[in-house]
Amino acid sequence: MLRAVTESCSVLPSGQPLESQLSLSMGTAAVLGLRRITTDAAPTTAYLLLGGRCAMDCAFCAQARNSRARADALSRVLWPTYDLAEALSGLTHAYSQGQVQRCCIQVTTRRHAVEATMRLVRQVHQASPVPICAAVQPRNLRQVNELFAAGAERIGFGLDAACERVFVQVKHRAPGSWQQLWSLIESGAKSFPGKISVHLIAGLGETEQEMTRTVQALADWGVTIGLFAFTPVRGTAMENLPPPPLPSYRRLQAVNFLIKSGLVRFERMGFSGEGKIVSYGLTEAQLIDALIGGQAFQTAGCPGCNRPYYNERPGRVMYNYPRPLTPQENQAAISLVLEALEAPGGG
Known about the structure:
Helices cover 35% and strands 15% of the residues. By secondary structure, the protein is of the alpha/beta class. The relative contact order is 0.12.
């Protein structure tokens, strides 16, 4: 049935082609039964990639307009292509069996990208009750509303940069574009409470203070934050730059978790002259108690998203853990959070 629907609608009345193939992350393809791989952490969200090379030219992205990276890469992950009907059938079965908890459609910016996303959202929604997140860049609140009407449960905005300075520099956007996107995120969050997500990437050139200020503002709007570490990818403009230092990333993971939990606020934190976190406004005992469960250091984002090995290589210390931490891993992470703090405010 899915194949028949796909083939009968291969071209829309407007002349826009309807995708007959879809790229899946390698881990997603395995969970959907389309590929055999060995992994110690399977994705709990099905990640779908819609579109080819992006019209944007973000310096960190493998899909950027001028990127020399592999065409089937996004961050460190490879995205093989499958027949759309086959992918939807696998997704429907995997969700019914509890193997995935949601579907995330990631979209490269191109002409009619939002319209293509709406069509795919409808197809997924018709095939399965799986919750759908559409990670796309709508141009206005009307398109946000239309994506929800099509069946999306959440909309994910790729803000990526923590401040306008980095946004303009790294994403090669014109001055004023930051405020335009920022305003749309705010409007979306107020119009659709609890249904807006934002991706932020640490290590693009921002300070910890700048990242913390943005996390606080988004949290105040009820926005869900997906926090990731910059990952250098061969063929991108930033391929020779390092990822963020692990202690810095651990501090930002703690910030995201503590602000989301209502335990700290940006205004009550302390920062060095270079913008490094030196106090959370908590005692050391309070901070340890808040972080002892380890959730702060697991992948943060939409419910059911664990995104294994998106930031790191297997066998190395993880930036985002796709599973609960061992006591030893959690203790090591907390120790990194504590090491730069000053007494008495931070312990």
